[in-house]
Structures are given as C-alpha cells and as structure tokens.
Amino acid sequence: MALTKQNKKRVPLVGPALALVAVLAAPAMAAQPDGETIIRNNCLACHSETGDKAAPFSRISEQRKTPEGWRMTINRMQALRGAKISPEDKRALIQYLADNQGLAPTEAEPYRYLLEQDTNRVEEGIDEGLGQMCARCHSGARFSLQRRSEDEWKRLVDFHMGQFPTIEFHSLARDRAWYDIAKNETAVELGKNFPLITPQWNSWKTAPKADLTGRWRVLGFVPGKGQFDAWMNAAKSESGYQLQLEGQYADGSKLSGSGNARVYTGYEWRAALTIDGVKMRQVMAADAKGGEMAGRMFPAAERAIGGELRAVRDQGEAEVIAVMPSLLRQGESAELTILGQHLEGDVSLGEGIEIEKVLERDDDSIRVLARATGSEGARSPSVGSASLEGGLSVYQTLARVEVVPANALTRIGGNGGEMEKVRAVYRAVGYSAGADGKAGTEDDLRLGYMPATWSIKPADEVAAHDKDEDFAGSIDAHGIFTPGDAGPNPARKMSANNVGRLTVIASVNDGDAQVRGEGSMLVSVPDFVRRVLD
Known about the structure:
By secondary structure, the protein is an alpha+beta fold.
C-alpha cells in the first residue's frame, strides 16, 4: 500500500513518498541558466564528463525521472553529499533534467497516483519478485517512475548497500542471498521492465509540445467544501504561467485564487496557487494537443486531503464538459447544471428526460429543472451540436454504495509533538444494478458521487474490545477523518496510544430507503522517516 504524509518542514530520504511539489511551481524569475552549465558548476566534484554528447555526465545521463524524482535526487545530494546549489539553479536544473531526461506520458500514466499524492490505495500488478525486493520499502510506483540502463540499476543496488548497510538483515532480505539476487536478478529485471531507452520516450522527445496559455474551464473537488467549477486564465511568464482562478462551489459560494505554474517534459503541469487564503498545489498531465488536463489538487500543507481536478481549454468551440449532479432518479424532479463553454442552441438531457424549466442560462452553464420518465441507463446531454457521451445517469433504485478510498491510512500526531496528524477524506459513489438487475457485477451503472452521512465502527472484535472507535479518531459530516492525538493515553488500557482499526460507513438516502457502504481505516503511528530540507 502506498501511503504518505508530508510534514511541511520535511522531505523524504527513503520510503514510498514523493517530496512536495512546492518549489516546482515557483514565481517568475529572470532568464534561467543553462542546465549543463549548472551541472558543471555544482556536480563535477563527484560526477564526471564522459565526452559523449548523447550522455555527457556519468550517472546523471544514465537515468530518466519525473520532476519529483529529479528533485528528490538533488535533495539527497544536498543532504547526504553536501552539494551546494542555489534555489534558482535548483529550479532550473529540475526543469532541464525533467525536460531532457523525463518520462513520456504513456510511461508515467499508470503511476500518476503517486505524482498526484493520491496514495491511499493498494497497489496491484507488481511483479512478485520486485515486490519482495523493492516494494517492501518503496511503493511500486516509486521505482516504476524511473528509467535506467541495466548498469545504472546495478549501481543503485550498490548505493543501497553502501547507504543502508543493514539492508540484508531486514525482513524479506535476511532469509535469502539478498545482494546476489538484487545485483544479478532484480537489477536485470528492472533494466528490462524500465529501460533507459524506449520507443515511447524517443517518440515523445521529438513530438511538438503544446502551449498551455489560455482560458481553462476547471472542475474539481475540495474536501469540506465540495465540488466546484471555475475559469482559470493561464498567461505566459518567464518561468511558466501566471494563473488567475474565479469560480464557485456547488452550494453557490464563490472561490478566487491566483498563482503560478510550470510545465515539465512538455506535459507535466505543476501549479502553486493561493485560493481563498489557502496555499494549494495542482498536479496534472496535459494531453498531447494541450486541450485537456487531468489530475489532483491538494493543500500545500496537507497533501492527503485533496480532490480530483480536470481542466478543459476554451478553444472557441461549443463543448459540454459536465452535468452536476450526474444522476437523476426516475419519477423525481431535480435541478441539474450543464457546464461547458459557448453553449448555444437547444438543450437536451437525453431520451425520456423532460426539461420542466430553464432556471438560469448563459454561455458557460445552464441550470434546469428536469424529470426522468424513461428507462434506466446512461444519457448523453447536448446543447446545440455539442454533447457529452454518458454524462448523466438515470436510475430507478440505488443498489449499492462504494466508499472511496476502499482502504486508507491516517496517522496520529500533534499533542505537542513534531509530527502533525495525517487525515483522510472519503467520498460515496452510488451504483444501480444495471440491466441484469444484480448489484455488484460488471453491468452495474455508475451514478456518481452522492451525499452521505458518515460514521465509524470497530473493524473487528479486537478493535471493539480496545474501543478503537472512541480513541482512534472521528469523522465529520464531510467525510473527513481526523485521527487521535499522539502519545500515551491514560484512558486506554495500559496507557496505549491512539492507533486503531476502524470501518468507515457511508449511509446514502434513496427515497424512503437507506443504502450503506463501508471502507477500511487504519490509524497508525506518526511517520518518522522524513527529514527537514526545504
């Protein structure tokens, strides 16, 4: 399970977490120094020039990484090797390395959850051998977001031995000839699965890169405040883009913000904004044409509390982007808002849906009162010639509720200690049974996020005996779970701390019925494997 927490004073040296992207989206600055010059001025005390134009620097040129990966490397050089580099040169070097030795979009796509700090999930599909040799300490995404030559993967094994000499005595290492396996089998496998040279990267290096300036329709979710839609203007600056954001939440309250963004590797969007006084971070990937971006937004100080983010550029054409909410119950009237741009022409929500009244309308949104009388299933709302395939679901009965994330980890903290609490946020997704009438099958119709009442209970008999529900934490009306205080608790048996195992329950009303879904919560100790850097 890849689960992380970032104390804002801390940067990881080991473990599955990636560093905060705070410095990646920096204010505009003067002309940036050349990346190779920065390497020559700061790195050649340990590295050397090879004389090969294609791979000019030893060790450095034999790797490809994400912007966060390169930042972690430089952080390690500063912390462990005493490297001296100014903040300005550091930003420029990350830009240079990510642009010239990054990952192609298709290489990074399967592991974007780690870049976006969406780490409350159980990883799947990791090779068993790599899981035992690598993922026992790191997340699978950590090594999957790197590309190295086979020799460089072998050198990484030697680095682990030198930096962590007790590694052979760890669990899943002391029962085998760890070094021999790591050097002669694992490194070879990594070299095959994640090689330095790939067709994807060769293709992306020469592909044209989109200019992301312009007006963007942004849809997202902020825990505790709900869904929002906004317009984001991105204007060119010396180091990237200057941003202005104006919009509103689903309840009608306004939001406003501004900030800056950088784009790495031609598609990796990293933005730092202050929205309504809160410092936020955006991590998104742009498509090849620069028409859409998707990712996640989270507070700079608490990346575990974030939400999905999508941006669609205004290219002067009519487009339906979303319907909020995305579900309509048969036989009931409800208010729906069609979101898009240049929305002109007749409005339709699909077969069997009557628009009883248009409540409000402009070029960017249309709010209507609608009633569904047709059969259950997905609809494609349209305005004029623009439509959104499957953008609205009509259902008869709510069959089940899925709690996301299905598994989450939080950490006790505070109470005078250095480590802050790590919270988690839950959402409820509704499903109808679909055409086969059986809930829990592939035929289920996803209805979308639904409002829920949240509660917790002990996860098992041991948790009930220890009264974990009374001590481990609490969940609020927005689905945000806050763990208990760190340190011994005299109220618990043997003054134990406030860790525990809980089940999180979402109760969703559907007419006169109530449907419940459950998720898992592990409340753990503080994460002490993080270090201060910048």
